[in-house]
Design goal:
Helices cover 34% and strands 20% of the residues. By secondary structure, it is α/β, with parallel strands linked by helices. The protein has three domains: 167 residues, FAD/NAD(P)-binding domain (3-Layer(bba) Sandwich); 124 residues, no CATH class; 106 residues, Alpha-Beta Complex (Polyamine Oxidase, Chain A, domain 2), CATH 3.90.660. Helix 1 packs parallel to helix 10, helix 1 packs parallel to helix 15 and helix 7 packs across helix 9. The longest helix has 20 residues. It binds flavin-adenine dinucleotide (FAD). The site of flavin-adenine dinucleotide has 36 residues, from helix 1, helix 11, strand 15, strand 19 and helix 15.
Length: 503
């Protein structure tokens, strides 16, 4: 008679996309999984809740881009229908409307990046400035997301990269830097060129439809996380909130045997950390075990960025041309976006007045302002883009300060980031900031790293089936050919020339 092997216990720390992804898969595979979350709600940066007045808010609105195949597949499997159709977007500066983007998948498909170049409707930027991006195609082909490519580009700033490749001042200031402020949450001189190339390729350049984005028809918390957590509990996973982990317990052989959470201990055969960079730094500082490992101490070299999420309810409907809008040039080093929630969220479709989400990235200098000052500023900036906001009255508002919330992909930070495996053999890492080779970013990356960590647990114990992770769509044939040619030239150069240059 064969005995069933004892159920392995796994503790997952942090209930964002990464932690929920790992927990769900392992619970489905029969593991005894406990997910510990410090805050009162699951969801991490995407958590949402109701204000005292009963209004739905969240820590910033979140878009789901066309290549988020793993998230779209999860949502289908859960039987949910949370998304709007893909939406068009515009970009504003203090001078007014700058750019309108079509829904790229509705246009005839052209080899990348031709579609992005031809179908995007620039209102002011001259053709000569747009053409100055062409030499950058070499760097796009050269950066293939490998370890070697990260080493070549990570210590260079995005600004230097664009300057070296001859990008015009206007194209940089009016197009690339605004994209960095909303994509990597930092201005060009503070972004790693490697992260810049990886992010731009994934969201914009790899394939014509990649820039298309959909939104949840309510908070992500209500539309996805709530039913997902219920499903996790149905398959046996435990999701415990208000549990802040502050130490990792090691046995005599140096293996993780559990985590400490105040005066409680949660025992485990494997542990997965799924917290942000900043939270991980705090855990290392309070941990008597992790501080003995250089790889964890090195995390103190990593940084995070301040973000501000506001939601404003107006006394009347304002005509907003497109539902999703990005803005630049209003404050030095700050990027911001605003969204017409009457068009996106079911809950506000019939609201008598406009409901607007306005989120500010790299917003350190705004955080000390009072809520009233912030709301006044937001209304002023909105009125610069769409004058109708000037006459309307704000009847309610929510201001959420996300201090040190998002990862800073700073120049030189790659060397300090961690991969999924650590020198503690049964401790695994996940989250949008860790090093992996999938090629995705943001929410999709966080979810994928959660699945990857779950797969490492399955590999270790040999119990259950690995999660099927959908790879990013392969490079288009001409990009593949350019990459192969470039790789051959590199190998030839390496064989013939001495290796004494900086990477
Ligand atoms: C304003 C804003 C807008 C954004 N817009 C987009 C967008 O449009 N599209 C997109 O794809 N991405 C967007 N992002 C990025 C996206 O939110 C993140 O990439 C993603 O949510 C990261 O998920 P995660 O699981 O890695 O980490 P997190 O969401 O940070 O989750 C980590 C969890 O760990 C918990 N935790 C921390 N410390 C402990 C501890 N000691 N013990 C227990 N639990 C702990 C935290 O409370 C948190 O719940 C945006 C982010 C912000 C802030």
């Amino acid at each position: 008679m064969s005995e069933t092997p004892p159920q392995k216990r796994v503790v997952v720390v942090g209930a964002g996309w990464a932690g929920l992804g790992a927990t769900y898969h392992l619970a489905q595979q029969g593991y005894d999984v406990t997910l510990l979350e410090a805050s009162p709600y699951p969801g991490g940066l995407v958590a949402g809740w109701k204000t005292a007045g009963g209004r739905s808010v969240e820590g910033g609105i979140h878009g789901f881009w066309y290549p988020y195949h793993n998230i779209f597949s999860l949502v289908r499997e859960l039987g949910l229908d949370p998304f709007t159709p893909f939406t068009r977007s515009s970009q504003y500066s203090p001078a007014g409307l700058e750019v309108e983007s079509p829904i790229f998948q509705h246009e005839p498909r052209l080899p990348t990046p031709l579609g992005t170049f031809l179908y995007t409707r620039f209102q002011r930027l001259p053709l000569i400035d747009r053409l100055s991006a062409l030499p950058l195609l070499y760097a796009i082909a050269d950066f293939d997301n490998s370890h070697q490519a990260w080493q070549r580009y990570d210590k260079v700033t995005a600004r230097e990269l664009f300057k070296d490749f001859g990008v015009s001042a206007r194209l940089y200031q009016e197009s690339f830097e605004p994209m960095l402020l909303v994509g990597l949450f930092a201005p060009g001189e503070q972004c790693s060129a490697a992260a810049t190339l990886g992010m731009l390729y994934y969201f914009i350049l790899a394939h014509q439809p990649n820039f298309d984005v959909a939104w949840c028809r309510g908070t992500v918390a209500k539309m996805i996380f709530q039913p997902w957590v219920e499903r996790i509990e149905e398959v046996g996973g435990k999701v415990l909130t208000n549990k802040r982990v502050d130490d990792l317990l090691l046995d005599d052989s140096g293996k993780a045997e559990g985590v400490v959470c105040g005066d409680e201990v949660f025992h485990a055969d494997a542990v997965i950390f799924s917290v942000s960079v900043n939270a991980m730094k705090k855990i290392v500082s309070s941990s008597s075990s992790l501080r003995n490992y250089r790889e964890f101490r090195d995390l103190r070299n990593l940084g995070a960025i301040d973000v501000l999420a506001t939601r404003l309810w107006f006394d009347r409907k304002i005509n907003i041309p497109l539902p999703s809008n990005a803005c630049f040039g209003f404050d030095p080093e700050i990027g911001w976006t605003f969204f017409d929630l009457n068009a996106l969220h079911d809950e506000y479709r019939h609201e008598p007045g406009s409901v607007i989400e306005a989120d500010f990235y790299h917003a350190s200098q705004l955080l000390p302002m009072s809520d009233e000052q912030i709301v006044e500023k937001v209304q002023r900036d909105l009125a610069t883009c769409v004058p109708g906001f000037g006459e309307a009255k704000v009847i309610d508002s929510s201001v959420i300060r996300v201090s040190q919330g998002v990862t800073h992909f700073a120049p030189g930070s790659y060397q300090h980031r961690l991969p999924a495996t650590t020198s503690i053999e049964n401790l695994f890492m996940s989250g949008d900031w860790i090093i992996n080779r999938h090629g995705s970013w943001s929410q999709e990356k966080a979810y994928v790293t959660g699945l990857e960590a779950a797969n490492l647990v399955i590999e270790r114990f040999g119990q259950g089936s690995k999660a099927n992770i959908i790879p990013v769509e392969p490079d288009e044939p001409h990009i593949q050919a350019a990459r192969n040619l470039n790789q051959t030239a590199r190998e030839l150069g390496n064989a013939l020339l001495p290796d004494f240059w900086l990477p």
